[in-house]
Amino acid sequence: MKSGEEYKTAFRTHHGLWEFRVMPFGLTNAPATFQSLMNVVFKDQMRKFILVFFDDILIYSKTMEAHIHHLDTVLRLLKINNLFAKFNKCAFGQTQVEYLGHIISGDECPVLALPDFTKPFVLEVDACNTGICAVLMQDKRPVAFLSQSLSRKHQGLSTYEKELIALLLAVEKWRHYLHPQHFIVKTDHFSLKFLQNQKITTALQHKGLTKLMGLSFEIQYKKGVENVVADALSRKMDTQAVVDAEQCMAISQLKPKWMEEILESYEGDPEVLKAIIALSTNSDAGKNMSLRQGILRFKGKAWIGNNVQSKVDAIDQVLKERQIMTKTLLVVRKNLKLASKFYGPYQIVQKLGLIAYRLKLPTTAKIHPVFHISQLKRKVRGQKIPSIDPHICSPEGQPLVGLVVVLDRRMIKKGNKAVVQILVQWANLLPEEATWEDYQFIRSQFSNFVDLEDKF
Predict the structure, then answer these.
(1) Cβ neighbours of residue 91 under 8 Å, at least 6 residues apart?
(2) Is 86 helix (H, G, I), strand (E, B) or coil?
(3) CA–CA gap between residue 376 and residue 347 (Å, rounded)
(4) How far apart are CA 59 and CA 91, in angstroms?
(5) In the Cβ-directed half-sphere of 280, how many Cα atoms lie within 13 Å?
(6) Where is the Reverse transcriptase domain (predicted)?
(7) Distance separating alpha carbons of residues 278 and 262, to the nearest angstrom
(8) For 164-187, what is each residue's pLDDT tens digit?
(9) Is residue 121 packed enough to be buried (19+ CB in 10 Å), middle (13-18) or exposed (0-12)?
(10) Where are the beta strands (DSSP E) in 60-130?
């Protein structure tokens, strides 16, 4: 404190009247005043080899010789300006220190970038069931992070509303960075992309757009697999919650590539975008229309947009994944029972009770003709049936299938061994129902395999 002005800090206790001899940080503007003093004292050394946050002074150097010289400079400046450091709170010659809650070392650990107000900012937001997060970035480097858990009330909100809350909290926290220049918002929730154009129907939308007024920004869709930083922060569990639960469990969800292709096909399709905006705020907005995981569906079937190239890519990807699934339906087992599928149509001969039917099956069928209603499917007029009758079975119930030709060969890894597999075309099955089987297993089961292998 300045000599002669200690009385300005006087306060009364049950022991009497007291005055501060050093500046208390609890006074109004005291932290800002002290930080201003530090900036003036170290103005020539700041960010060259010293960082100062209030009374935390960090001196960093590339070599020990340079560090000794820098330390001498800092201590000399403190002495000149009549500033003192408590010895038991100091650490010298350290290779690793804790500074502002972060462990800093010389091992090239990640450091937040300093903001450059001549360049645009990028704001990435994400939300999960229990938390939200945001990352402020420039030139693909993080400037600041935000992570916050959701209350029980907010955990019951829709994904769209959680993502919007994450955006609003991030803008409110970093408004001093984002205003007044243009910035970009990236989210993995496709519907949020149309926030600025959709009709306001909820109180949260009205509140959100009010907070965003006066800001220049655009919202871009970013695939979930690319939004790794924000996604990881939003799913980080609270430490106390982990202690209470004594176990941290997670559920991983696979997202097929064709879903990403369908989302890209919506670009530039005004009809689809209009429907998505309406369904985002009102699930009953469209007749027979629904919105799940950002995919527009009509009567439960995915709607592909009019973006031609993306439309072709989406269809190709669906067919490719379906082909891969079909080729692996038959796995190596001790018998060759086929995967379950529907056959027919067959005439209903008799209804047995409320939930069972007797069907008129072919004489070659080796199965009981009475079926539970859950095992049947109504024939739709014009529907194409891939197989008219079930495959002929042996008395033991095994399908009588035979090899026609070997189509392809590959080598895969099973455990620590390399296993040869072949793509087999089966008798009485469609060409697209060819399956990958282990070479040694097929050779042991079929006597004519050698002749077929020669043909391949």
Answers:
(1) 97
(2) coil
(3) 12
(4) 10
(5) 27
(6) 1-104
(7) 19
(8) 899 999 999 999 899 888 999 998
(9) buried
(10) 96-99, 102-105, 122-127
Is 205 within 8 Å of 168 (Cβ atoms)? no
Query: What CA–CA distance (Å, rounded) separates 343 from 376?
Result: 10
SS3 395: coil
433/277 Cα distance (integer angstroms)? 41
Tell me the two tokens of residue 406: 């070997």
CB neighbour list of residue 51: distance below 8 Å, 6 or more residues apart = 57, 58, 60, 99
* DSSP at 367: S
Helices (H), 298-356: 308-327
CA 214 to chain centroid: 30
Spatial distance between the Cα atoms of 266 and 274, rounded to a whole number of angstroms:
11
Q: How far apart are CA 419 and CA 426, in angstroms?
A: 21
Give the integer Cα–Cα distance in Å for 445 and 334.
Answer: 10
DSSP notation for 203-223: HHHHHHHHHHTT--EEEEE--
pLDDT tens by residue, 189-223 = 888 888 877 777 778 888 888 888 888 999 988 77
Report the distance separating Cα 66 and Cα 93, nearest Å.
11
Contact 190, 276 (CB under 8 A): yes
Q: How many angstroms separate the CA atoms of 189 and 282, rounded?
A: 16
The answer to whether 159 and 135 are in contact (CB under 8 A) is: no
As to burial, measured by CB atoms within 10 angstroms (0-12 exposed, 13-18 middle, 19+ buried), residue 29 is exposed
In which order are the strands placed within the sheet that holds 295-298?
Answer: 289-292, 295-298, 301-302
Contact criterion met (CB below 8 Å) for 160 and 204? no
CA distance 363 to 373: 22
Return the closest-CA partner of residue 230 out of 176, 185, 295, 175.
185
Eight-class DSSP state of 28: T
| Residue 157: Cβ within 10 Å count | 15
pLDDT digits (tens, 9 = 90+) for 230-273: 555 555 444 444 444 444 444 444 556 667 777 777 777 778 77
Rounded Cα–Cα distance for residues 187 and 227 (Å): 8
